[in-house]
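Hey, sorry to bother you again with one of my protein questions. There's a protein on my desk that I can't quite get my head around. No rush at all, and the record is pasted right below.
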Amino acid sequence: MKALINVDNFGGTDADNDDILLQAFEDHEAYLDVIALRRHMIIGKKGSGKTAIFKKIITTKESDFFAYGHTFSDYPWYYHEKQARVGIPDFDKYTHSWKYLILLSAAKVALNQDQSLPFDASSMEEMLRLESFVVDTYGSRDPDLSQVFSPIKHLKLKPYFELDWRILKAGISPEAVPVTELPTIIQEVNDAFTRTILRCLNPAHKYYIAFDQLDLGFDPNAPEYAHRLTGLLLASRDINLAARDAGINLFAAVFLRDDIYDCLHFEDKNKMTENFVSLIEWDTPRTQKTLKGLMERRFSIVLGDEASQHVGWDAVFNEDREMPGHQTKYEHMRDRTYLRPRDLIKFANCALARYKERAGKDAGADHLDKLDNVDVHNARIEFSEYFLREIDDEVHKHMPDYEKHLDVLRALGKWQFEREEFDATYKVQYPAAALSSVDVLEKLYDFSFIGFYRAGGRGFGGSEYMFKYRELRTRFDPTSTRYRIHPGLIEVMGLKRV
């Protein structure tokens, strides 16, 4: 095992800047659900590992495995929004435009990635039909999918798709249908397009169309954003079911933050949640995956002398000494996170930095071969500041004035408090506030700033304080009288542990 002093870090907290992301990839149950074509909606908190799974899928190179990934940092949404169908429920008005994009993505994979196609004589005619449509419409067999709905495009539907051409407006040729007219005929186009795609794909291969970074531009008060996302969830479900019925392994997967998914409201949402959602969780009764196991994979990569060497948590952290409260260092650090890989990686990197400072000052220090209590303790301020910044990225759109609510907690000045204390402080600081104190407490609970005490609670690790990030389905109890602020915020908010 290499010396800790020679290690820069244990990886990055951002999937886009983590050099060992794929090396340290953990085959979470959510990943296995996608690979097995079981569940296509991968839901988790920011930093829980959604993008890691997305990247693993789109970078996998196998002879029978093909994938295309969509990220939307520069996607022209104004083109897409013009494809909304009128006269149907809002939650469904983007479903067909998303289906078209998924089908065209599958066509791109078929035409450019899978060299086995056409896989038999019967699929050859369909492949020629597909290639001709794509090339004649978009000018290339490998089109730029960000320009799918560009108004300068004209769809050459005839002779490639069998449609009832009477559905076209007078004066519009089926050989040059303006994209602006697509919403009026898109259901019929998608039906024909789906048949063609499913006849082209090799039933012995797997094809994945994945969607990530859908939080860009998120606004909880923008109905069109919610309608657009709902359309994608419905479209991916419909495509997946059609492919399954045809015996083809085509699978559209959507990676979405849990707070955004919670904001969506549409028919059959509960049914879809039960059948098609896979949650990314760590260290809960619903998963076998732990943050400790994930960190040990990283330790093995950066500290192992050989590729096969396993470096356990105890080889890096000195667990012979307990932290305050009779906790192990793992428990102490984990409890200050939202049970997300990003958080524990950051905490471990902070502790490593403090360890290296200590090692530089005193080469003869006790337990210098491992990270010790002092390093974890000294890392807490930096981690706590990071933790609040991370929460801000997720919460500020839902609660623009959440800082005012945190000011009340700061004024209380302690980690645990009673309901009456909060009520009194809130009234003093904001006497004319529109929200009641119980409404504020519920909002703080919804984003896990606080947990409430529940007698006989079944909380994580036997805790009697219920936090939303641990128990997603536990609703706030407005009758509760005792509360605890998340431990990861103690330092940054200047709280006392009393």
The two ends are 41 Å apart (CA to CA). Residues 4-10+286-395 form one domain. The chain has a mean pLDDT of 92. The CA atoms of residues 460 and 470 lie 7 Å apart.
